[in-house]
Amino acid sequence: KNLRIVTILGSLRKESYNKILLQAIADKADQKWDISSADISELPLFNQDIEADGDPEAVTTFKETIKQADGVVIVTPEYNSGIPGVLKNALDWGSRPGNSSVFMNTPVAIAGATPGGAGTALAQMQVRQTLAAMNANVMSHPKVLVGGVQNKIDFDSGRIEDSRTISRLEDFVHTFTSFVEMYQQSSKAGQ
Ligand code: FNR
Description:
Blueprint: E1 3-9, H1 17-28, E2 33-37, H2 48-52, H3 57-67, E3 71-75, H4 85-94, E4 107-113, H5 121-132, E5 137-138, E6 144-146, E7 153-154, E8 159-160, H6 163-189
Parallel strand pairs: 1-2, 1-3, 3-4, 4-5, 4-6
Antiparallel strand pairs: 7-8
């Protein structure tokens, strides 16, 4: 295991489908990624007054976790055709102070699951747009857009059992591994 991959989950729900999807990604990456998760549930609502008094501990921990990552994987639901507020809040904290975002030059991959049909495409587009504002380096494909997720889970094991989804996840993990490695090589070459 050589790549330090930090995961961010855009749902705080205990029985989250996206948590199950993240677990399936982690299972596929078992040999290659040293995975840790960034906790966004304790971040206060972003407020420049709080920031002016110094970052609260949860913010400092979050920023440090992202800074130390070789790559970040964001797995998120879609709320009202867009990015969930808790995730946007975390990305906003990570973007500060301006021009020194902790996501700067960081390879990021996005995935999402929904019982709906469109697989969180609109939420992922907004995550991508937000990260572009911070000079993150977002992988474009393969996209992981898991629609009808409740039909792809075996509720006895609590795992994704759909073979097409699983092979998509293998491709996602494999491609993101290369994406991060390629990025490390080119940034070293540029130093
Ligand atoms: C949703 N949901 C939803 N799904 C979707 O595909 N597109 C959408 O725009 C929305 N909008 C939306 C708004 C709000 C406020 C909620 C609470 C939910 C349904 C959503 O996909 C479903 O609740 C998932 O189960 C949420 O993901 P987790 O928590 O299971 O990971």
